C-alpha cells in the first residue's frame, strides 16, 4: 500500500515537471547553434564580471533634514599663512553685531617663510588641481568621503595665524606701508577634523596688489553627518564666494583692509551614508542576466534560422523550376520528376 502511494506521488510529481528531459537521440546540433552558444557564454561571463564589480562597489546616499541642534558650538580649524610679521597680525570671531563671541586663544604663533619650498609648491599645485576637478565633477566628493582616514592629512605641517590676544584693528597701530595681506589658506574646516577630506579653500593663495587690500570669503556652512564603513563622524561642509578689492577712501572704496571670513550656518543638515548592494540583490540580478541572455539568444537564433530557411527554400524552388526533362513524344517538361527509392539515374 505504501509503495502504491509512493508510485502515485512520483507519477504526480513527474506530471508536474516543468523541465522535461529530451533524449539525446532526439536532439539535433548545428554549427550555427554552437556559434550562438559560444557568443552567449562569452557575454554571460563578461556581464557576470561587470556585475560583480558593481556588487563590490559602494555609493553615497544623501538625506536632508532640518537641523534641530541649537546648543552645540561650532569648532573652527584653520591653518593660514600671512605675509606679515607675527606682531602685526590679529584674529578673532565676531557675531553679526560685531561683538566678539570667541577669542583667538586657541591659535598658535608660528613664524614661517611665506614662500614655499619646491616640494610644498608641488603639494599646492596638486591640491589646486584637485579643487578644480571637484568644481567640475561633483561625484569626486563621494570618492573623498569614502577615502577619509585612508590618506594622510591634506594640509601642510601646522601653521596657524600669529596674533595678539583680543580684538584689535591694526590701522591705528601699524603704518599702512607695513601691510601685506598676501596669504595662503593651507586648511580651513568646521566641526570634527577628519584627515583626508579636502575642503573648498584648502590650498588657496592670494597675493595682494596693494598695501590696503581687503579679502573677503562669504561661507555657507552645512552641518553634515558622515557614516561610512570606515568612520562615523559629525562634521560640516561649506561653500564659499570670494571677493577682493583695494581700499581707497578717495575713490569711494571704503572699509578696513584685512582678511575677513564671514560665515552663515544653514538650517538644513545633510546625512551622508555609504551603502552597498545586498547579496540577495546581486544573485537576483545575476540570474536575470543569465536567463535573459539564454532567452534572447535562443529567440534570435530561432528567428535567424527561420529567415535563412525561407531564403534557401525560395532559392531551391527557383532552381527546380529551371530544370528541363525530355519526354518520349519529343516534348519538354519543366516540372521536377518524382524521385522514389526505385528510381534509377
TrEMBL record:
GO biological processes: endoplasmic reticulum to Golgi vesicle-mediated transport; retrograde vesicle-mediated transport, Golgi to endoplasmic reticulum
Domain Endoplasmic reticulum vesicle transporter N-terminal: from-to ranges: 13-98
Pfam families to which the protein is assigned, alphabetical: COPIIcoated_ERV, ERGIC_N
InterPro entries per UniProt: Erv (IPR045888), Erv_C (IPR012936), Erv_N (IPR039542)
Subcellular location: Endoplasmic reticulum membrane; Endoplasmic reticulum-Golgi intermediate compartment membrane; Golgi apparatus membrane
Domain (Endoplasmic reticulum vesicle transporter C-terminal) ranges: 163-299
One cellular-component annotation, GO: Golgi membrane
Keywords: Endoplasmic reticulum, ER-Golgi transport, Golgi apparatus, Membrane, Transmembrane, Transmembrane helix, Transport
Main location: endoplasmic reticulum
Membrane topology type: Multi-pass membrane protein
Top-level division of the source organism's lineage: Eukaryota
Family membership: Belongs to the ERGIC family.
Protein role: Plays a role in transport between endoplasmic reticulum and Golgi.
Name this protein carries in UniProt: Endoplasmic reticulum-Golgi intermediate compartment protein
